[in-house]
Structures are given as C-alpha cells and as structure tokens.
C-alpha cells in the first residue's frame, strides 16, 4: 500500500502539474493572440500607409488618369520588411515588390472582402492585409460627368516566421518558468509533507515506548496538531482503559492467589505438624480440618466459576417478568433472621408490580447478593433499605446500607473479585465474591449498576433495567 | 524460647502454635495486629512470627511501630504476598526473614531455630560448655555418657541458660521465655526445674554447670565455642 507521504505528494504534485499546464497554456494562448494581433495591426498600418501614397495623375481632357504610387524607395521585402502589391481598379499593377510570390492569388481579399488573411506557399506562411483606397487627386472632387474616382487595392504580406519565433520564445519562457516553479513547488511539497507528517512519526515513537505493563500516553493531546488530537485522545483513552483492565487482572490474579494460598498454607502446616508428631488427637483434628479446608476451597472455586460464567449458567432458563419487591422482601426476611443479634433496621418499599425481565434464578441471585452484602457490612444498629421504583419504562432497585467505613475511591473497586474493605482474612465467609457475582450477572441481564457513598456515610447501590 | 505468633487465620494460628510447642517452644498466639503489638511491646519474646494482612492493625504497621519502640526481637514474616517488592518492604520495615505461604513447616521450624540462634549470638547449632553439648536442632543435651533425659520444660530452661551463658538470668526472665502467657506458673516452678536439671546432669557425670547467683538468678558459665562431638 502506498505510503501517506507518497499519496499526498502524488496528489499535490499532480494537481500542481495540472494547474501549471493549464495556466501555462492560457498564458501562451493569450500571448499568442496578442502577438498576432500586434502583427496584424502592424501590417494593416503599413497597408494604410502605402494606401495614402496612391494618387491619380491628371488625365487628358479631364478624364481619369493613371494611378501611381507616390513613393520612390525600394519595394523589396528586405527594405520594407514586408511584401507590397498595389493594383489599380482596372487591374493594372501600380507597384509590386520584386520578390512578391508568384503563387499568391490575384486577389487576396477574395469574395469575403476580409482585410486580413493567410496565404501558404511551399515552405512559407504569410499574413496578408488588404486595403481598398480611392486614389488621391490634386483636386479631390468627383468628375463632372459622374465618372467614379480611380481606386486601387493595396496588398501587403508579412512572413509569419517572426510571429512564430516570438511565440516560441513565449512558449520556452513559460516552459522554463513552469519547470522551475514545478521543481520549487515539488521541493516545498516534499518539505511540507515531511514536516506535516512529523507528528505522526513522533506519535509512532511514543507508542513504541509505551510500557506494556503500565500503558499510558507520554504526551498530552494538546501537544499534537489539532488534526491529530482526536486520534491521540482516543489512543490515550484506549491505553488508559487497557491499563485499568490490566491492573484489574493483576489484582484479580493476586487476590485469587492469595485466597488460595492461605487455605493451602493451613493444609500444609496442619498435615506437617500431624505427620511430625503423629498423636491420635492431633491426627484426628488434622483430618477434620483438612476436610473443612477442602470444602471451603471447593466453594470458593464454584463461586468463581459461577461469576466467570455469568448469565451463561441461566441460558436455558425461561425469561419472565420478575417483580422485585416481593423477592427483596423475602430475601430481607431471611437476612433479618440471620443478623438478628445486630439489631439492624430494615425498610423494604416501592412498586409491587415493577420488575425485571430475565431468568428468575439470575434475578434472584442479583437481588440476594446485593441485599446480603448490605446486611453483612452494616454495623450493629445500622439500617438497610431496599426500594423498587419505576423510571419511565425501566425499573430501579436501590439498596442502601450503613453507615459504612468506605472511601469514595473504594466504590470503583467494590465489584471486583475478592475485594474487601478490610483486607484481612479473619472470616472465610467474607471472600469478596458477592458483588462480583452481581456485576457479572448484571452484564448478562443488561442491568446498569451504579454505586456511591452518600454524604450521610451510607452506601447506595442502584440497579436499573 | 518464647515465640509470639500474630496470625488471623484460626487454623494456621492453632497449627503453628501446636507445632512450635511440640518442638519445645513456649508459644503465645494472637489473631490481630493490635493485640500483637501490645504483646510484643510488653513481653520479651525470642521471636515473632508475623502475618501481614491482619485486622485492626496491618502487619507492616505493627512491625514499624514495634521497631520504633526499640523492639529487638527477631521477626519472621509469613505472608501470601510473594512479589519482590513485598519482600523488600517487609525486610526494610524491620523483619529479619520472610517466608511465603504456603510453606513447609520443616522450613519454618529451621528458620525459627536460626533466628533464635542468631539473636543470642550463637553461630552454631552446637554449643559446648564443660562436658555438656547442647544440640539445638535435635533439642537435646549430650554428655560423654549419652543424652541427658530432660523434660521439655527442663530442656527449655537449660537451653535458655546455655544461650545466655555468662549472664545471670532471673527467675522472672526464665518464666517469660519458657512458659506461654496462658500457663499458670507456680512460684517455685523454675527452682524445681533447675534442681531437677542439676540432679540429672550429676547422674550423667557432668560437672555442675548451673550456678545460683543469689539475688540475681541462675547462670551457666560461658566457655569456648563448641567443637562437634561424635554423638
């Protein structure tokens, strides 16, 4: 594929060539017309000059006399710079250049009466001018008997050679000028294109230097020409998203490894100690603990798989309208029993008929996890609120709980797997998977989710379908 | 030797305590960083085994505060964080060793022994004083007549005196380093143990090593470094 520089250069130079060609041609044609008009004018002027020298000599008894040329100089082309022929009205030759071409027609004007014309002889081309003149008389007055005054036709011919030489000079000048202009412009175009493309080369160098582990654009978009700013901004956004995705993956990998390392460490230590000091009580305790650890690891892996598969688990389930409020009420009742000792206050309210469309089990998993999370992380004496309301043709589930000991910055990470506000691992039940499951299922159901820390210190999660 | 374990995982805490006690150490174990810091600052431990991701107070913060308070006990970090930067952070915060979970208990035990030995300035696992060899790795005292049959508590007392040879060790200090905090210690327990040790050493043909410094405590006289004896 042709390079950008080549494409730009070719199109610019082709355009320039076309412009130079057309403008050069126009200039040449204008110059040519001017040269020829000037030549014609010169010829005509000379013809008129000689016409003014045509006189009628007095005739006998007052009758018309012969027509003569009142000019005594040489009539050759070399002397006049043109060829001359004067013919009287009776067809007699009044004057003629000795080198008048014999092949020239008798009447240059022809039937059309044109004053100007062209004649070609072998090897030469002539421009002709003809003027019909009434011969001057001493007494410049008509004859008494009405006889017409004597007249003559003055023909002049000029060779086109000079015109052609002039035209050639103009053409040569235009060609030379055009060539120089083209060369200069080509150089300017090359420099301009090269300079114009240098931001692209800089962009390329910067992209090559991007650290694949922490991708980000080294330069701000404003440092690029405005034509490239949208591209660099898109690249910056893309690299930022890529960096965030990689960071999430690293956190997930680290968290998953950590989650698995601790139970494995427990298992190894219990087994090693029991093996080293194999007393019956110790062996029995070790076996019981090993079984419990294995069960917890299995539960963790299954939760991870369910989250990773998202809605695919429910792909074969029928989709239906699932009212949210009755479901939330039922789940909240179970959570109230479970957390009874912490004296949480519960409020479940809203539109009874509003709901989401989807597999019932998937919807239930979302609602259960988000309410369970709210109940789990609300301190004793706190409150949990779940509200279902319509918003146009959409249904919003809002779950609020608190007060919570979270920073606003935690909100962006709380739906990541294994994330917990308290990074310790005191309670195997708090694996930080619940909201991750919510996130995965929301994506598959088409539910939009949002979370924020309210000014009163409560956490609010909103799910909208 | 008395060891403090700060680990929030109940199973790991209990199994480590069980294993180290079986190996002859007096062990205190706490589940969070706040309690760990209190214990470390108020009790003289020979070693602290410290998890990093703790509730109440993070392990690294605990360690920094302990060192800032002039705490000198060796610290062995146990953590699932395995990146180089995590190990570097831990060692720079004041830890003496860093072991990544999951780990071999045998390796943990060997590192605990090494740290305790180094903290007492003992370059070797074998210490000879008089005609008695202390084999720290094997947890036994040996004379030319063979091993001296000591109970775990008697061994712990004599080991501590050997590791602090040349210095009078008070009864209170011996109680602190030989018994865990959850044990009710009779007021004459140490005296009784020392008396039993003297009898057994005499029976083994070893000259008396443990002398009483009235008003100061008990002492084992220091001698040259041990030459490994064929046991």
Per DSSP, the total helix count of chain A is: 8
Most extensive contact: A-B, 24 and 27 residues
Number of strands of chain A: 14
How far apart the termini of chain A lie comes to 47 Å
Identify the strand order in the major beta sheet of chain B.
Answer: 2-1-3-4-5
Helix-residue proportion of chain B: 40-55%
H-E order of chain A: HEEHEEEEEHHHEHEEHEEHEE
Largest beta sheet: strand ordering of chain A: 4-3-7-6-5
State the oligomer: heterodimer
Low-confidence stretches of chain A: none
How much beta of chain B, percentage-wise? Answer: 15-25%
Unreliable residue stretches of chain B: 224-231
Major beta sheet summary of chain B? 5 strands, parallel
Beta-strand share of residues of chain A: 15-25%
- So how many helices of chain B? 8
Q: Which structural class best describes the helix and strand composition of chain B?
A: alpha/beta
Classify the helix fraction of chain A into a percent range: 40-55%
What would your notes on this structure say?
- The complex is a heterodimer of chains A (465) and B (231).
- With 465 residues, chain A is of the alpha+beta class.
- Chain A is built from 8 helices and 14 strands.
- Chain A has helices at residues 4-51, 77-80, 161-208, 229-276, 280-309, 324-338, 360-376, 434-445; strands at residues 54-56, 67-69, 83-88, 93-96, 116-121, 124-134, 151-159, 319-323, 345-350, 355-359, 383-391, 394-402, 448-453, 459-464.
- In chain A, helix 4 runs antiparallel to helix 5 (280-309).
- The longest helix of chain A has 48 residues, at 4-51.
- Chain A is rod-shaped and about 170 Å long.
- Chain A starts with a helix and ends with a strand.
- With 231 residues, chain B is an alpha/beta fold.
- Chain B has 8 helices and 11 strands.
- In chain B, the strands form 3 sheets. A 5-stranded parallel beta sheet of chain B has the order 2-1-3-4-5, sandwiched between helices. Chain B has a 4-stranded antiparallel beta sheet with strand order 6-7-8-9, with helices on one face. In chain B, strands 10-11 form a two-stranded antiparallel sheet.
- Residues 224-231 of chain B have low confidence and may be disordered.
- The interface between A and B is medium-sized, with 24 and 27 residues.
């Amino acid at each position: 594929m042709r390079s950008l520089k080549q494409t730009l250069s070719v199109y610019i130079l082709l355009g320039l060539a076309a412009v130079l060609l057309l403008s050069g041609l126009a200039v040449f044609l204008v110059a040519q017309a001017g040269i020829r008009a000037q030549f014609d004018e010169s010829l005509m002027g000379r013809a008129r000059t000689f016409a003014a020298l045509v006189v009628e000599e007095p005739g006998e008894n007052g009758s018309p006399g012969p027509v003569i040329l009142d000019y005594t100089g040489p009539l050759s082309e070399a002397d006049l710079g043109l060829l001359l022929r004067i013919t009287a009205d009776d067809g007699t030759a009044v004057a003629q250049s000795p080198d008048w071409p014999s092949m020239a027609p008798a009447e240059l004007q022809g039937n059309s009466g044109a004053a100007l014309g062209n004649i070609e002889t072998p090897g030469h081309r002539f421009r002709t001018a003809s003027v019909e003149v009434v011969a001057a008389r001493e007494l410049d007055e008509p004859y008494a008997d009405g006889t017409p005054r004597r007249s003559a036709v003055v023909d002049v011919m000029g060779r086109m050679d000079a015109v052609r030489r002039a035209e050639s000079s103009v053409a040569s000048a235009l060609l030379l000028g055009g060539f120089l202009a083209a060369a200069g412009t080509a150089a300017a175009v090359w420099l301009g294109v090269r300079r114009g493309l240098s931001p692209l080369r800089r962009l390329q160098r910067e992209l090559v230097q991007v650290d694949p582990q922490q991708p980000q654009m080294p330069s701000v978009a404003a440092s690029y020409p405005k034509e490239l700013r949208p591209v660099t901004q898109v690249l910056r956004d893309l690299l930022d998203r890529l960096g965030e995705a990689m960071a999430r993956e690293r956190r997930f990998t680290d968290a998953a490894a950590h989650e698995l390392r601790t139970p494995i460490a427990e298992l190894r230590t219990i087994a090693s100690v029991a093996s080293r000091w194999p007393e019956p009580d110790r062996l029995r305790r070790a076996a019981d603990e090993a079984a419990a650890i294995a069960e917890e690891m299995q539960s963790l892996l299954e939760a991870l798989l369910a989250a990773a598969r998202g809605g695919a688990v429910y792909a074969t389930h029928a989709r239906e309208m699932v009212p949210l409020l009755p479901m939330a009420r039922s789940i909240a009742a179970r959570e109230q029993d479970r957390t009874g000792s912490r004296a949480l206050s519960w409020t479940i309210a809203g539109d009874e008929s509003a709901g989401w469309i989807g597999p019932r089990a998937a919807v239930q998993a979302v609602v259960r996890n988000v309410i369970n999370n709210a109940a789990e992380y609300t301190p004793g004496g706190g409150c949990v609120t779940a509200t279902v309301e319509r918003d146009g043709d959409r249904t919003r589930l809002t779950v609020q709980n608190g007060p919570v000991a979270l920073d606003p910055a935690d909100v962006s990470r709380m739906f990541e797997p294994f994330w917990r506000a308290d990074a310790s691992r005191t309670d195997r039940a708090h694996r930080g998977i619940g909201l991750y499951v919510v996130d995965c299922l929301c994506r598959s159901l088409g539910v939009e989710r949002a979370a924020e820390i309210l000014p009163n210190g409560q956490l609010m999660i909103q799910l909208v379908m | 030797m008395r060891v403090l374990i700060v680990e929030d995982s109940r199973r790991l805490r209990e199994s480590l305590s069980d294993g180290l006690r079986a190996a002859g150490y007096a062990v205190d174990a706490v589940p969070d960083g706040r309690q760990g810091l209190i214990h470390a600052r108020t009790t003289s431990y020979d070693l602290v085994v410290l998890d990093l991701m703790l509730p109440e107070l993070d392990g690294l913060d605990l360690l920094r505060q302990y060192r800032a308070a002039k705490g000198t006990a060796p610290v062995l970090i146990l953590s699932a964080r395995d990146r180089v930067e995590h190990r570097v952070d831990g060692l720079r915060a004041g830890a003496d060793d860093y072991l990544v979970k999951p780990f071999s208990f045998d390796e943990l035990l060997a590192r605990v022994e090494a740290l305790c030995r180094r903290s007492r300035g003992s370059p070797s696992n074998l210490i000879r004083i008089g005609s008695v060899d202390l084999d720290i790795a094997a947890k036994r005292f040996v004379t030319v007549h063979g091993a001296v049959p000591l109970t775990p508590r008697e061994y712990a007392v004599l080991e501590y005196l050997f590791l602090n040879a040349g210095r009078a060790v008070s009864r209170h200090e011996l109680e602190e380093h030989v018994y865990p905090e959850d044990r009710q210690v009779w007021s004459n327990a140490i005296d009784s143990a020392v008396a039993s040790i003297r009898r057994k050493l005499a029976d083994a043909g070893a000259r008396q090593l443990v002398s009483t410094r009235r008003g100061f405590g008990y002492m084992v006289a220091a001698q040259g470094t041990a030459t490994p004896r064929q046991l």
